[in-house]
Amino acid sequence: MGAGRTAEELGRAFAGVPVRTSGGDAVLADVPGGASLVVATVGAEPYAPDGYGAALLLDGWALLGRPDLRAAEETLRRWTAAAALVRPGRDGGSVVVVADSSIPTVQALVRWDPVGHAAGQLAERVEVGFPPAVHLAAIDGTAAAIADMLEASELPEGTERLGPVPLPAGARRPFAGDDADPADVERMLLRIPRGGGRALAAALRAAQAVRGARKAAHPARVQIDPLHIG
After folding, report:
1. 171 contacts 179 by C-beta, under 8 angstroms
2. Nearest Cα to Cα of residue 78 among 109, 120, 36
3. What is the model's pTM?
4. Which of 22, 33, 204, 218 is packed most tightly, with the most Cβ within 10 A?
5. Any idea what the CATH number is for the domain that residue 156 is in?
6. Residue-averaged pLDDT of the chain
7. Does residue 18 sit in the same domain as residue 101?
8. In terms of domains, do 220 and 157 share one?
9. Of the candidates 91, 126, 161, which is a domain's last residue?
10. Residue 225, strand partner residues
11. What pLDDT, on the 0 to 100 scale, is given for residue 177?
12. Phi and psi for 124 in degrees, rounded to 5?
């Protein structure tokens, strides 16, 4: 259910109570005092001078279920930002989150423990070898471009090659106007312990310079620690 539909349903359920919406091209900076209902999209929550009496955090399943390495941490950040606008519990404020209470991110919100949540997320990433426990470099391009890039690179010791893998859904192709089939564009991941991040970046930068000087036919894009791994 979208924000507009939610506002309509609440307006019918609470006849006579003003319903204000905030989001998209109509973001409210603040709302006046007095009884009202505010329906806001994520990040568009207006400021209430006296604090909100309650907050209902919807669509937890959608936020936590996103195929994104940072889905849990980003969800907790958004939840705590919204909850911080509510009056303290001693003054009657309440926060209700619509999500499974056994999920660690929900528990972190209930305990108001973002530090513990971050520690747990880091431990999980250390176990599977994901940033920030390591550094990752992503090379996007055709198979020929990736192979040429790796051949031109003097990768530091300890670099692990992962892939190639398909580009993440919705990722921009590394070049435009090329006649290569989009299905041929891939992503190669290079993983190295945190201490080798600068050396890996320097090696890839040097390889790009070499390929640029010789006008390589197949362009490639390099990203260090991309948000979307694929």
Report:
1. no
2. 109
3. 0.76
4. 204
5. 3.30.70
6. 87
7. yes
8. yes
9. 126
10. none
11. 43
12. -65, -40
Q: Is the pLDDT of residue 95 over 50?
A: yes
136: three-class secondary structure by DSSP: strand
CA Rg, the chain, in Å?
23
230 falls within a domain: no
3-state helix, strand, coil in the chain (%, to 5): 40, 20, 40
The Cβ of residue 69 has, within 10 Å, a number of other Cβ atoms equal to: 17
- The pLDDT of residue 225 is above 90: no
Backbone φ and ψ for 14, nearest 5 degrees, come out as -120, 70
Confidence at residue 190, expressed as pLDDT on a 0 to 100 scale:
96
Is-contact 128 140, C-beta < 8 A? no
Q: How many residues does the chain have?
A: 230
Structure tokens, 181: 């089939």
Residue type, 42: V
Q: Give the type of residue at 36.
A: S
How high is the pLDDT of residue 175? Answer: 58
**Does one domain contain both 29 and 109?**
yes
Q: Are residues 72 and 89 in the same domain?
A: yes
